[in-house]
Amino acid sequence: MESKGLKKKELLTILGQTSYNRSMYRCPSCGTTRFPGDEALDVVNTTRSPGVRRMMSRAGSNRTFKEAKEDLNIYAGITVSAKDVERVAEATGKEVEAWQKIHQSTNLEKAAETETIASSIPLLYISYDGTGVPMVPWETEGRKGKQPDGSAKTREVKLGCIFTQTTTDEKGLPVRDPDSTSFVGAIEPAYDFGWRIYGEALRRGLNSAERIVVLGDGAKWIKGIADMHFPNAIQIVDLYHAREHVCNLCKILFCDDEKSGLRHRSKWWTYLDWGMVEKIIKEARRKIPENQKSKKDALKEISYLEKNKKRMRYAEFRKQDLFVGSGVVEAGCKNIIGARLKQSGMEWTVRGANAIISLRCIIKSNRFEDFWSERAA
């Protein structure tokens, strides 16, 4: 390349607007231009410093883009538009996703090359779930949904978390280790998400865990990922979801007798706590109504219990001091996804939603500064 002299560039920094001169080089054959100074300062194709972009992306991931714009002006005296915040936040989210994929590939390669490490993590939990996010119309076109006409207005975000446990409290209940929770998530097929959560589990020490627990509801894709990527894990169906299905079963079987329904619900919940799922199934089969629709609904709930009975031995799990509820990922769906992406009037594209999800997950996992540190290095 040939030097073409110094060129001036305006930059917005956390200390205000500034300018600097840097060398420009051009290839005489293909015309490609490079500015080594921009590359060194991480300001290629942008007029904002890394510090400003970091602030904009964090603000845009936590609040609406309009609110983020106002916060930046009040807290830091940085004047940008809501659209600027959106562009920078989404661009950073895409870069974070690429950064995580590089780390995931590295972890997978290391796992393939090395033998299982001696146990150093007593108990590793892997939990994941799905929640809907409102989308622009063309992102749901042709997809089945819950609308009266069978159409969809949302796409499912799959969110997963990894955390560890080493102790119990004075009552003998399991206690999640402080600051041990990390999150991953995206709008993507279950197969792709399986590799995503598996890569994060490897990063968190899957191969050095003494015991592994997969927590989730009874959805087919949740069990599928567990069987494929975590075959040696203890699989537990979230107790709250199991109780919900028992409650629904009681409503179907005793729709004309509320007192009897409540009595059976209380009794069957007790059976559930003891892990006596077969007893619930046996008693429920005797109560199946003759009405064809009610019969079909009842058999569906009984089938759910039958398929997941081995993952509902709650008394046995409690004896092992294990969590039996997926409250951590349920809270994540509300706080990471719902609080930012499901506000009134919002509609997302898959690209935009995934960028913000990536940002929010890495921030909640306390890895945001790691990303920027590696960029600087």
How would you explain this protein's 3D organization?
The protein is α+β, with helices and mostly antiparallel strands and 377 residues long. The protein has 14 helices and nine strands. The strands form two sheets. Strands 4, 5, 6, 7, 8 and 9 form a six-stranded mixed sheet that branches. It has a three-stranded antiparallel sheet with strand order 1-2-3. Strand 5 and strand 6 form a beta hairpin. The longest helix is centred in the first third of the chain and has 32 residues. It is elongated.
Short description:
It contains 14 helices and nine strands.
Secondary structure layout plus pairing:
Blueprint: E1 2-13, E2 16-26, E3 33-34, H1 36-41, H2 50-62, H3 65-76, H4 82-113, E4 121-134, E5 154-168, E6 174-176, E7 182-186, H5 190-203, E8 209-216, H6 220-229, E9 234-237, H7 239-253, H8 258-274, H9 277-286, H10 292-308, H11 314-319, H12 327-341, H13 350-364, H14 368-376
Helix pairs in contact: 2-3, 2-4, 2-13, 3-4, 4-5, 4-13, 5-6, 7-8, 7-10, 9-10
